[in-house]
Design a protein that fits this description.
51% of the residues lie in helices and 5% in strands. The protein is mostly helical and 370 residues long.
Amino acid sequence: PPPPGGVPVNCWRATATERRPSQCIGPETHSPSVLSSTSSMSCTELDLVHDLGSFADHVIAGDVLDHSEAHIPLWRLDATKSLSDFKITVTSKSGGTATYNVHKGILATGARANAYFVKLFTNSPGPMCQLTLAASAANAFPVFLDFCYSSEGKLDAETHIGAALKYIAVYFGNSALFEKICAFIVKDLTWQTAPTYYAEADLYDLEKLSAAAARMCALHFPSADHDELILLKTGLFSTIIESPHLTCDSKLLSRRVADYCRAHSAELTSELLLAITPAKKMPEIAPKEALYLYERAVLYLPQEKGRGSLRQRCMDAGNPFIQTWLKRALWLDLLPCAGDITTAKNEHVIPGFTTQSNLQTAGVEAQQVL
């Protein structure tokens, strides 16, 4: 409240009519004649905008700074312009190197500070450091720097670098980035993006993200990107097939599995074939894939026989050519030499069978079946 007499103690905060020259201090002290002339001015005159000149009027030519690049993050500018005091060289494991001119004060202080760089700048006074990152993490590094330099904490995340940014957040100890990228992934992880997140999460050992992506792939296996699924490592693909969340028509599943086997023929083993062709989830084989999968069974699962075996399911597929094919395999098995087998094979176009041993094995089984 104002002191007795109605005049505030801080006279400079008072209005012109409240001021008393005898009680004002400093440059705001006015003579009675000034006060009387001011009080006689109209409201319109008091509201006039006066021309006080520009900044350029008060400085020497050439001393006015160019602010046209003020919207660009400092690390993206020339090191001499941005007064960079540290260099980070990032080498991608897939090849290629990039150098970034950064600033210690930005990477190690503030709301988006990185514990990694706090320790580095405190314990190592050197002017640079070198990092080796996986390809997607190396690609995500500029996005990471943009986030650190952004005054609003803007993050330009995308699906193909989502897992990499989460890895970077953990690696560099940036809690703000971790929260931002997790919020992005929660919205972005769908059946369309799940295979990409699954592969990337496995690369960076992000177990919870990997489990979430695998579950999404299994739930939406029929709709998931077929080309992306084929690119998955054998262990990841078999995890999807073994998942309790897998929902897929048996015949469609057999087609997907056959395509995967073709793409990973060099990595195919008996353990993998058993894991991705379980009778419980694939009781029926698509007729068009019966011959191909039968040969895989002959080659990799020679001991698996009887009801429920992959070979039996292939023979039960209802392919109109399956019985004819088995008869030809039996006939070829009885031929005297490999040359005759090759000739007959070419003449009768038996799909998939490329070796005499496979044909002979099939012939023995054909005798039992027929």
